[in-house]
Design a protein that fits this description.
The complex is a heterodimer. Chain A is of the alpha/beta class. Chain A is 34% helix and 16% strand. Chain A has a single domain, classed as Hypothetical Protein Ychn, Chain: A, CATH 3.40.1260. Chain A has six helices and five strands. A five-stranded parallel β-sheet of chain A has the order 4-3-2-1-5. In chain A, helix 1 packs parallel to helix 4. Chain B is mainly α. The chains are: A alpha/beta, B mainly alpha. At the A-B interface, helix 1 and helix 4 of A face helix 3 and helix 4 of B.
């Protein structure tokens, strides 16, 4: 038998590239969970994930009701894509998701970022995506520490026990 | 289950050091548990522990968000009181079970 030596996780770099409620929250929950365990966490938002840290968009995220095979009716039936295309349906489903998360004490995005940064977590925006969407630091929420390049991200990823997670 | 002696009292603890019997808890036990982790409990710490015990007794599921809204301490303060484990360590010293929430 070989001796397996476990190396404890010390740092996570979490990359969020999509703007759906569930994609953003996956990253936020993992980052918050890390700092709560004493693990250093840095969140890097890129492409549509930038919505989650853009002042005007961050609390208006949606979950996709079209082309989402995981969507179901409250009774468990599958959710017809055509129904999801009706105006207002996506907004209704999204607000239901937020309500259900609130019941589990999962906060809105801005408050979640408050919690993560209060625990020492750091929030970064991707430079290329920000340039592409014509966003400057002023468009982003105050939690954002800096707009950085992918090279900067890798430079921050050094050290034993670091993992990069792409949600 | 393991046994440990805190403040001259032998108590049963889980593998992670949480008290098995809530009734074994006392301020002195809490202080010695915290000391093992290098934390000196102050009045502010005890206020948080008291709040957690009350909430737990009322059947509430505990999150750092809830503690942050308790009016006792904000989340940043909670991290400062219990470095590296705001909810895990505070629950341990409060003599309640390990938190089962993801937030």
């Amino acid at each position: 038998m070989t001796d397996v030596k476990e190396t404890p996780l010390k740092k996570v770099m979490i990359i969020v590239a999509k703007a759906n409620i569930e994609d953003v929250y996956a990253g936020l929950i993992m980052a918050n969970g890390a700092v709560m365990e004493g693990i250093e966490a840095k969140l890097f938002f890129t492409f549509f994930g930038l919505d989650a840290i853009t002042k005007n968009q961050m609390n208006k995220l949606h979950t996709a009701t079209v082309g989402n095979p995981g969507m179901r009716m409250p009774n468990g039936w599958s959710f017809p894509t055509l129904l999801g295309a009706i105006p207002g349906v996506e907004a209704g489903v999204s607000s239901m998701m937020k309500k259900q998360m609130d019941e589990l004490d999962v906060p809105p995005v801005d408050e979640f970022l408050d919690m993560i940064t209060a625990g020492g977590g750091e929030i970064y925006a991707c430079k290329m995506a920000a340039d592409m969407f014509k966003l400057t630091k002023d468009d982003l929420c105050e939690h954002v520490k800096a707009i950085i390049t992918v090279g900067d991200l890798y430079a921050m990823s050094g050290g034993d026990g670091t993992q990069i997670i792409f949600t | 289950m393991a046994e440990k002696t805190f403040a001259g009292k032998t108590v049963e603890v889980t593998a992670e050091g949480y008290l098995v019997n809530k009734s074994d808890w006392s301020k002195e036990v809490a202080a010695e548990m915290a000391k093992e982790d290098g934390i000196e409990l102050t009045d502010k710490h005890y206020e948080v522990l008291g709040y957690l015990r009350e909430q737990e007794a009322a059947g509430a599921s505990l999150t750092i968000r809830k503690v942050g809204k308790s009016g006792i301490v904000d989340i940043k303060g909670l991290y400062q009181l219990f470095p590296g484990g705001p909810l895990k360590l505070s629950s341990k010293y409060a003599g309640i079970a390990k938190p089962a929430s993801c937030v």
